[in-house]
Amino acid sequence: MKATLLFPVCFALAIALSSATRADVLTGHVSMGTWSTLISGNYTNSVYVSPMTVTNHTTGQSAFLLFCGDYNTSTSGAFSSSGQEYNPIALNSTSVDIYSDAQKNQLSSLFGHAYSSAFDLNGNILNVDYAQAMQLAIWTILHEGTGNYNILEGSFRLVDNYTLSVVNATNSILDAVLGNISWEAIGMDVFTDYDLTVYIAEGGKNVSQTLISVTGSPNREEVATPEPATMLIFGLGLAGLGLARRMKK
Q: What is the dihedral of CA 208, 21, 111, 222, to 10 degrees?
């Protein structure tokens, strides 16, 4: 009987280990030095309107872009030499419950249409206005709530140190996100179904910013490699099966 139970126990242990959330250690710096003041309700904060250029010390990936989800919380951990731990989860996963389904859909539309106009595949800035507009649009989607979006009006808004070209680009993109105008009308009718990942700080949303990144696109070429947890499943399973056979003999 003990031999019979061994394989299911090994398999269950491997499944439990494979489902554990991976924590990635990130360090980064601001990509552009554009400093502006934003207000949400009675809360005012001065921030860099810019994505972060990040190194992921867990995966070895460097120089990729992460957009800020929470302009009113600190990124001090990610700017320190030791970095900060974040849990990477696919945006469309049900595990990402900090954003509503409507917000997820709007973020997917925003990145799918606007990202390639602002950045190349290596994360280099192609258009500064669009790059800043994307960050402002993300904050608006996540902090404004329902109704029409306008970066100079509403409960979440930009109040100083901005250029008219960035304001116009942001409002045009937000109008397209809401369907008030077509993406074609602003020259962004091509849609790319990017893989989007949300990085959530260890300890919860308010420990540091949640961050959003493009982690892949349908046009990329990949060689499928087994995840370590998947290999562990097979390894423990085979070990359990082998031991069960020896005990049976």
A: 140
| pLDDT at residue 15, rounded to an integer | 34
- What are the residues facing 158 on neighbouring strands? 38
Task: Output the pTM of the full model.
Answer: 0.77
Q: The tokens 């990610």 sit on which residue? A: 78
Beta strands in 73-179 (DSSP E): 84-90, 156-160
Residue 210's pLDDT band (cuts 50, 70, 90): confident
What is 163-211 written as a DSSP string?
A: -HHHHHHHHHHHHHHHTSS-TGGGT-------EEEEEEETT-TTTS--E
Q: Alpha-carbon distance 216 to 197, whole Å?
A: 9
Spatial contact of 104 and 212, defined as CB atoms under 8 Å apart: no
Nearest alpha-carbon partner for 86 in 123, 52, 58, 111: 58
Q: Dump pLDDT digits (tens) for 17-41.
A: 334 467 899 888 887 767 888 888 7
Asked whether 131 and 114 are in contact (CB, 8 A), the reply is: no
